[in-house]
Amino acid sequence: MTRFLLVLNLVALVAGLAWPYLVNLRTASLQEFNAGKIRVWSQPAAYKPGAKAADSAKPVVTTALCVEVSEMSQARFQEVGGLLKTAGLEGGACSYRFDKELAWWVFWPPEYEAARRDKVMKSIQAAGVKDVMAITQGAMAQAYSLGVFTNETQANQYRDTLRGKGLDKVEYGPRPSMGTGHLGCAADEAGKLAGLKASLPAWAKAVEERMCWPAGR
């Protein structure tokens, strides 16, 4: 009888010591098993199925327009530039493509008086410009070519450089007799492109994108 009581007390002691551990273990297991539900219940707005973050950014949809400009000239280049500004597409949103290389030039506009031409030539030489050529034929006759370039950015930068040296009448644009040019514009607002398209003159028309981006965009 005494031995039985001793064994019974020993079992009760072991059970008492093990009980807190078993309770903690069961609680931890339940928490791990229901971890997802616990998070959902504690933060329902953040984990509600299908919920979208309030501050999620809207995707930017880029649209494009390719414009074919026939019989490109300095006058048409400047007119298109005005249309781009009105449509809010200036500042690099659009770029030209020509089939010929060295499509751009920097020039001094035509001067028709001999005395004025001599004065202009002296000013050009004083500015250190060495690549000077007098234009004798075509719509730009009596102008001075001050350099040719492969892209518009180079021509624009050189024009600004020469103006900084006092040649304030210097301009840039497509070289004479470049023929047809293609102007590709891309914007994240379709309304800007629609405005440009609606304002195009008779000698400019919208064409397929591949005419502006042969290899794709």
Any overview of this molecule?
There is one protein chain. This protein is an alpha+beta fold. It has 7 helices and 8 strands; from the N terminus they run αααβαββαββαββαβ. It has a 4-stranded antiparallel sheet, covered by helices on one side. α4 (74-87) crosses α7. The longest helix has 32 residues, at 2-33. The protein is elongated. 19% of the residues are buried.
Bin the helical content. 40-55%
Helix and strand content put the structural class at alpha+beta
Runs in which pLDDT lies below 50 for 5 or more consecutive residues are 4-11, 17-51
What's the number of extended β-strand segments? 8
Which overall shape is indicated by the principal axes computed on the Cα atoms? elongated
Largest sheet properties: 4 strands, antiparallel
Radius of gyration: 38 Å
Q: In whole angstroms, how far apart are the ends?
A: 95 Å
* Mean pLDDT rating: 81
The DSSP helix count reads 7
Q: Largest beta sheet: what is the strand line-up? A: 2-7-1-8
Beta content comes to: 15-25%
Sequence of secondary-structure elements:
HHHEHEEHEEHEEHE
